[in-house]
Amino acid sequence: xxxxxxxxxxxxxxxxSCFESVAxxxxxxxxxxxxxxxxGKTINILYDNPIDLAIDSxxxxxxxxxxxxxxxIIRKGRFEYDxxxxxxxxxxxxxxxxxxxxxxxxxxxxxxxGETNVSKxxxxxxxxxxxxxxxxxITDPHISRQWIGMPDNGYAKELELLDKFIEVANIxxxxxxxxxxDIIHDYTRYDADSLGWGGVVRSGFEHPPLAEEKxxxxxxxxxxxxxxxxxxxxxxxxPGNHDFYGPKIDDHPAKAAQWNRLMGKRVYGFxxxxxxxxxxxxxxxxxxVDIPDKAPMSGLQGMALDSFLNMAGPGKLRIMAEHRQxxxxxxxxxxxxxxxxxxxxxxxPSQGFVGTTPTLIxxxxxxxxxxxxxxxxxxxxxxxxxxxxxxxxxxxxxLRFCKNPTASYKQLVLNLxxxxxxxxxxxxxxxxxxxxxxxxxxxxDCHIRFIMSKNKKEYKVSGGEIYQTxxxxxxxxxxxxxxxxxxSLRIVKIE
Length: 495
Description:
alpha+beta; 3 domains; 6-stranded mixed sheet; Immunoglobulin-like
């Protein structure tokens, strides 16, 4: 009997360790909701510190530099970030971004009591806001719907397209990216046919890949393919009807709590200059108190979003994102004068207007969902670019990032490419970048990052404009912006 008890204790300890290794102590900024912050301004970090360890340091780390952040104040108490699940942390840490910090998308590290907690790609630092500014809207990637390889050692098929789209998006270099739900999938399809159907379908807590691995594929990628951490812009994600794995479909508290544990915030808002953005969840919460059936934003999350807009102020332009195209609370939209409503769920591109503002309601199509092969010409490989200028906005028609989204990974032909004449790893004192735009629209402020040898003389660029340099002990990073016309090339030289 004692032997059995020992085994049970070991099993419980292992399971608890696995659970805690996935849950992140940094809850904001984190996976679902990163932060965009100006140099000289502060961030209030939500940090779960259950055994009250002393905070040793807070650090931002980019690919080419590292910044130690001054800690202004640490508050202790109970700080709730989800009114439905009552999820909360016991610390907030206010830090200031020091002057001179380069513009970059950083990992956030908190060191406390010998432990290190990290929130990857979660803090975007800007020297100033850009006006006009751009963001990209994608939806329904369904990372992990179709699984390649063994359940415990495979990867999400959808990553093959996502990885290549990331190359395109990083050249466009938007200020942020919005993903309107169905970021993972609540079942897993093995050995699918050529159209992404058939095979064996499994779901539940006991069948790998588990929810942790699905979200890991979405963020970190797998087998050399990039997840959304590969974007050089902060990615804001919100829930859709497929964004859970294991809980029963009607167990709303369990589904929402799983999102909190693996993603952090479920309902939130942020500001970019005079633009107000709010993200809603129309599937994980219940239809009684969180998002009521008849008036979806009259429940708990509507109160949270109203509170954000009241505190942030009206701004000049308001954007709301949710997943379900037929569950719009027009009373909320009209009352808050929402200008743009970003949607997902249905995979065909669409645009129209609702309410009295009027509010643009819009979908882009899908970038990478497996199972869309049979109707790929209408749905697959698409994204939209939005340009915000004060109280006005423009948006692209659905853009297909590659010419052949049904091809194999190595055969995909991208509609926007960046090629360097020499290697771009810090060994050269001159280089040439060729930007090829096959889209039928011009693209402004495309991004080129030259990694150059350290040189006593100043580098000069033709064909573009240097907007910052980052120097470390090994080489010099030269960030350049340039415009490229539709269906044309742009050559940028540095020497």
